[in-house]
């Protein structure tokens, strides 16, 4: 909304755009559609907000992910994405906060993946404990890059 009024790009307008991208990534949907979101919703922000605020995270997750994700990490990303797309820039988080939340979601996914692969629950529990207690789980170079952590889209 800020860009629409001022015609000036800002850090907060970038955060809004990034929030839309996060919603596209977890849902597999385009940002604007005449068919995908139903009669009352024309864009991904309205559609995702309805689902997330009603507690229906499963309703927006891309079905091609086939339950190969941790629901807690999806909630983290979805909730932060909604914060990014707040109508007023002053209500949006700084990008550093968004990145921190993404890093935490990646840590959760790593723990869940280890558990799915039959590795010990100890590593999974330690990651969850570190996040819940606010303990640094290591330097940021240990996190996946965006290229490593985001699957390439496939044709439907």
From TrEMBL:
GO terms for molecular function: kinase activity. Keywords: Kinase, Receptor, Transferase. InterPro entries: Kinase-like_dom_sf (IPR011009). This is Putative LRR receptor-like serine/threonine-protein kinase. It comes from Vitis vinifera.
